[in-house]
Amino acid sequence: MRIANYQLPLWPTLFAIPALIVLLLLGSWQIQRLQWKNELTETIAAQTSLPPVMLPAEISDPADWKYRPTRTEGRFHHDKELHLFGHNKHSGPGYLIITPLERADGSFVFVNRGWVPPEKRLPETRPEGQISGTVSISGLARLPWPQHLFVADNEPEANVWFFGDIDAMAAAQNITDYAPVFVEADATVNPGGFPIGGQSRVSFRNDHLSYALTWYSLAVILAAVYAAFVVSDNRRNA
User: Fold this and answer.
1) Which of 16, 127, 167, 217 has its CA 20 to 30 A from that of 116?
2) pLDDT, tens only, 32-67
3) Are the C-beta atoms of residues 183 and 140 closer than 8 Å to each other?
């Protein structure tokens, strides 16, 4: 293969061109991730700045409630709590306790009451936190989320969950009338100290620009090395 007056070496060319394409694609993908992360940050900032309101009985568009400060009232069904594997914001792995709360109209809200360490997963290990009677919960509404790459399958039969499939959670507990969003409770201390509330994550690392620049820089370096090799190879064979 020739370009202008240069003969292109076969094997270096077969390596360099696909590698260059991959590096450029990776850089472009990080730019797309950067735009997504910026939009998410703007959405969170706008939503969390809104005044808290009571979660309505009917929600036509759950997306409108993403990260919206909200309140809800009702009675916890501790016998139906679900255990979602997760990390405390300030420590290691454990479980987030998702407890259905029955409102006065009979509908349910799945409340993320907070985090417990593995040894506090079972409700009998934290009896003080099993609040009875009518309670008022304040926190942020959060949309269910799908299973991402490398995330394990949910295990309803073991009551161990790895992603927020609210429909599957409701089915596992024979609940049919429920809000299409979770409510993540604020940091109000529960009796006995567990679960530890206030686990909502409203800030995220955003390194996508530096990643994009890294991939693009590698592409430029590869192109320069390849061009230098072609020039040197042609001079040597002239």
Assistant:
1) 167
2) 999 988 888 888 888 888 999 999 999 999 999 999
3) yes
